[in-house]
């Protein structure tokens, strides 16, 4: 979906149409989604709201309505189900579909994608972009190619050339830290990555190096899994300098909790275990976890649990290079509150 949360808000409130809109901010302190008008100012999801406001003085913050987003997401998935049973949701606004079987006899995957996009527009008033290809990795790249409201088809014959022309920072599965490492090796594009040997990449990146070697050549054998469960949802941040000050670390953890919780809500999950990840300046790692009898359903509770875990580490024996906070033991969808059992069992 194109700028999903923000587009839903603009659809439902005509006064927001054509204006820079950010969903989120407020108590969470980060942008959950930005309209395309806001993106022109460099505003992106997970950006601190104060930074976003600094970039665009006219930015309009809107409180998230995740119940509405979930409802629209379910409506869109119902459309998908008319074309295939092989649907792998990535979040409320994105999914892989395997349409090999061509259930409705439309002839091509392109025709199926166009039909689905047309129905989404007509039935929800929103636009979607699609990437069509022979594997997940290339389809994912293609889905971002012609946003918003676009379609991109990459045939197997075109795949390697298409990948070669893209910067490695665009590759799904290569985050900012890894992209910087690759760029430090002189690997700026897919073409640069294709020139490196498997042995060199595995030596530098371990088992991930094998994956980078494969995707640079358009090799991805992963199937579309219709029942792929989330194992955890988290966020982390690497600092420019090692930190030891408790107040500074607590402040950073609060921001990280906001990023992680935005992902939790987008994934439409809840969980019972909060896990703190700490990487020290010497690259040693530790994790600390706390489990609760009932799922955590509020950002404040999630953040507080993380802060308690962090506070138990002080004074830290060495500087902290990275902090991460995640939610585990996940449950998808709405969770009913526990009920008191009666005596007559």
Automatic annotation (TrEMBL):
<keyword id="KW-0239">DNA-directed DNA polymerase</keyword>
<dbReference type="Pfam" id="PF11799">
    <property type="entry name" value="IMS_C"/>
</dbReference>
<keyword id="KW-0548">Nucleotidyltransferase</keyword>
<comment type="similarity">
    <text>Belongs to the DNA polymerase type-Y family.</text>
</comment>
<feature type="active site">
    <location>
        <position position="94"/>
    </location>
</feature>
<keyword id="KW-0460">Magnesium</keyword>
<comment type="subunit">
    <text>Monomer.</text>
</comment>
<keyword id="KW-0515">Mutator protein</keyword>
<dbReference type="Pfam" id="PF11798">
    <property type="entry name" value="IMS_HHH"/>
</dbReference>
<feature type="site" description="Substrate discrimination">
    <location>
        <position position="5"/>
    </location>
</feature>
<feature type="domain" description="UmuC">
    <location>
        <begin position="1"/>
        <end position="175"/>
    </location>
</feature>
<keyword id="KW-0234">DNA repair</keyword>
<keyword id="KW-0479">Metal-binding</keyword>
<dbReference type="InterPro" id="IPR043128">
    <property type="entry name" value="Rev_trsase/Diguanyl_cyclase"/>
</dbReference>
<dbReference type="InterPro" id="IPR017961">
    <property type="entry name" value="DNA_pol_Y-fam_little_finger"/>
</dbReference>
<dbReference type="InterPro" id="IPR043502">
    <property type="entry name" value="DNA/RNA_pol_sf"/>
</dbReference>
<keyword id="KW-0808">Transferase</keyword>
<dbReference type="InterPro" id="IPR050116">
    <property type="entry name" value="DNA_polymerase-Y"/>
</dbReference>
<protein>
    <recommendedName>
        <fullName>DNA polymerase IV</fullName>
        <ecNumber>2.7.7.7</ecNumber>
    </recommendedName>
</protein>
<keyword id="KW-0238">DNA-binding</keyword>
<dbReference type="InterPro" id="IPR001126">
    <property type="entry name" value="UmuC"/>
</dbReference>
<dbReference type="InterPro" id="IPR036775">
    <property type="entry name" value="DNA_pol_Y-fam_lit_finger_sf"/>
</dbReference>
<feature type="binding site">
    <location>
        <position position="93"/>
    </location>
    <ligand>
        <name>Mg(2+)</name>
    </ligand>
</feature>
<keyword id="KW-0227">DNA damage</keyword>
<dbReference type="InterPro" id="IPR024728">
    <property type="entry name" value="PolY_HhH_motif"/>
</dbReference>
<keyword id="KW-0235">DNA replication</keyword>
<dbReference type="Pfam" id="PF00817">
    <property type="entry name" value="IMS"/>
</dbReference>
<comment type="function">
    <text>Poorly processive, error-prone DNA polymerase involved in untargeted mutagenesis. Copies undamaged DNA at stalled replication forks, which arise in vivo from mismatched or misaligned primer ends. These misaligned primers can be extended by PolIV. Exhibits no 3'-5' exonuclease (proofreading) activity. May be involved in translesional synthesis, in conjunction with the beta clamp from PolIII.</text>
</comment>
<keyword id="KW-0963">Cytoplasm</keyword>
<dbReference type="GO" id="GO:0003887">
    <property type="term" value="F:DNA-directed DNA polymerase activity"/>
</dbReference>
<dbReference type="InterPro" id="IPR022880">
    <property type="entry name" value="DNApol_IV"/>
</dbReference>
């Amino acid at each position: 979906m194109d700028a999903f949360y923000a587009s839903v808000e603009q659809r439902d409130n005509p006064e927001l149409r054509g204006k820079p809109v950010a969903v989120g901010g407020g108590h969470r302190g980060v942008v959950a989604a930005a309209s395309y008008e806001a993106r022109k100012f460099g505003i992106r999801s997970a950006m601190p709201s104060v930074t976003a406001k600094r970039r665009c003085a006219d930015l309009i913050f809107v409180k998230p309505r995740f119940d509405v987003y979930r409802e629209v997401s379910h409506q869109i998935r119902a459309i998908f189900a008319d074309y295939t049973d092989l649907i792998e949701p990535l979040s409320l606004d994105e999914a892989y579909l395997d349409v090999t079987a061509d259930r409705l006899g439309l002839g091509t995957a392109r025709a199926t994608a166009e039909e689905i996009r047309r129905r989404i527009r007509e039935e929800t008033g929103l636009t979607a972009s699609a990437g069509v290809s022979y594997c997940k990795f290339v389809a994912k790249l293609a889905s971002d190619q012609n946003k918003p409201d676009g379609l991109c088809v990459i045939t197997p014959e075109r795949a390697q050339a298409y990948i070669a022309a893209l910067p490695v920072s665009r590759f799904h599965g290569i985050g900012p830290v890894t992209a910087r490492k690759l760029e430090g090796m002189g690997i700026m594009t897919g073409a640069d990555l294709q020139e490196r040997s498997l042995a060199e990449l595995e030596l530098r990146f371990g088992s991930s190096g094998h994956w980078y070697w494969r995707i640079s050549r358009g090799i991805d054998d992963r199937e579309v899994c219709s029942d792929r469960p989330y194992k955890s949802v988290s966020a982390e941040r690497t600092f420019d300098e090692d930190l030891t000050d408790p107040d500074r670390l607590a402040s950073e953890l609060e921001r990280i909790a906001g990023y992680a919780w935005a992902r939790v809500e987008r994934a439409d999950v809840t969980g019972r275990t909060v896990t703190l990840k700490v990487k020290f300046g010497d690259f040693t790692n530790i994790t600390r976890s706390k489990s609760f009898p009932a799922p955590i359903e509020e950002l404040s509770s999630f953040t507080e649990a993380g802060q308690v875990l962090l506070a138990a580490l002080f004074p830290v024996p060495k500087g902290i290079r990275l902090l991460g906070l995640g939610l585990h033991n996940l449950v998808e969808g709405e969770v009913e509150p526990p009920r008191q059992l009666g005596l007559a069992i």
